[in-house]
Known about the structure:
Layout: E1 4-8, E2 11-16, E3 19-22, H1 23-26, H2 35-38, H3 42-50, E4 59-60, E5 66-67, E6 76-80, H4 84-89, E7 99-102, E8 108-109, E9 122-123, E10 126-132, E11 148-155, E12 158-159, H5 160-165, H6 171-174, E13 181-182, E14 187-188, E15 200-205, E16 208-214, H7 222-232, E17 240-242, E18 262-267, E19 271-276
The structure holds zinc ion (ZN).
Zinc ion binds near residues 125, 127, 242 and 244.
Amino acid sequence: xxxxxxxxxxxxxxxxxxxxYDLFRISQGQISxxxxxxxxxxxxLHEMAARLSEHDSDGLLxxxxxxxxxxxxxxxxxxxxxxxxxxxxxKMDLPEIPVVFSKYPSCISGPFDEVELRTERxxxxxELVVVIGRQARDISEADSWSHVAGVMVGQDISDRRLQLGAxxxxxxxxxxxxxxxxxxxxxxxxxxxxxxxDLHITCDINGDRRQDARTxxxxxxxxxxxxxxxxxxxxxxxxxxxxxxxxxVGMPDxxxxxxxxxxxxxxxxxxxxxxxxx
Length: 278
Ligand code: ZN
């Protein structure tokens, strides 16, 4: 049974319909209330999701404080130029191997948190974010999805001045200011999606559609990325992969983010985040 996992007031929960269920309570203490520990318990999460109807709800999602489903990842990878149309708008050649950078985990924030810009060149990047669920070392592409806990909506907010002003460009710092990594509100297990490799992803700024794509046009897909990274280093539960953004970011037309902008990021079947800039 698929699950939809959330961080409600800092505690691990399952979401279903309009309701959330506290995992520590409904599992009678078997599953940790710490989202970072609960996420390692994939089999138990699937089991609990199948038996949700046996439990009373702990409240309405619409009234809950939803934090990042994975609040303290050990590693957080970003993939650059992973959609052809975005590589073209960035005037870059298509990569032959993945462009991988560290989006430092301290930038991770909640799905409805404010983005603190601190730059004139802040930009948005709607992304599918993969959450590792089982330790992965030298995993084949065919085995990749079985090591994934689920996927989330994410924003790879970028300070283009920090990112591109240095020579050579430094992706790490430019994508890692505090609050530059909103994720959530839900971590959805892959079996809850009709085709986890073909999801509609969009980004609106103040209601204006800027990005509109399908994840099936990723140059390096989720199976490849998990396999590729697992050959270099051991992936652990909770590690994140920001898989790259499609065309439509602000930089080519210098439509940078300003205070008050509302960023709405959606992936079909996964969720919607709303982040206001200040
Ligand atoms: Zn990105």
